[in-house]
Structure formats: C-alpha cells, structure tokens
Design brief:
GIY-YIG endonuclease; three-stranded antiparallel beta sheet; 90 residues; 40% helix
C-alpha cells in the first residue's frame, strides 16, 4: 500500500499539509467537512501537491518537515514539482 504526503490549497488560499494511504478518499473526506479541523471552515480544498512513500512513517516524517517550512518554501516545493500550477494564484 502506498502512502502519501500532500498539500491542499484551501478556499481562503491557505495551505494545509497532511498524510494518508488513500489520497482520493482523504480529499473527499476533507471536502465533505469531515477532515482536519483546520480545513472544515476553509472549504472547498484542492489537492495541489503530493509525494508517494512506501511506508506511513516516511510519509509522516515528510509531513512534519513540510509543516515546519514557511509558506514561501512550501510554494517553492509545489512549483518545482507542478509546473502546471505556476500560473495560478497561490
């Protein structure tokens, strides 16, 4: 089973980072208002970045690293991996 660290863009243009082993299901859960407390009042959310890992420990470790970064560094990570997002406001 794959594990993912992901970044969402919330409706208020903030970023949220989390991890999961089912990316589609987790995104749906967030958008149904049943995800993290942070995202519930900032719907809808859009998946803008993810990384894939073999173990949950690796995904959680990466989530912790990303959460500690300032917004500017998070945006650099997103832009470096997703050239199709560069034109969007983040």
């Amino acid at each position: 089973m794959k594990n993912y660290t992901y970044i969402l863009r919330c409706a208020d243009n903030t970023l949220y980072c989390g991890w999961t082993n089912d990316l589609e299901k987790r995104l749906k859960t967030h958008n149904e208002g049943k995800g993290a407390k942070y995202t519930r009042s900032r719907l809808p959310v859009t998946l803008i970045y993810y990384e894939e890992f073999e173990t949950s420990v690796e995904a959680q470790r990466r989530e912790y690293q990303i959460k500690r970064l300032p917004r500017k560094k998070k945006l650099e990570i997103i832009m470096s991996k997703n050239s199709n997002i560069q034109g969007e406001k983040l």
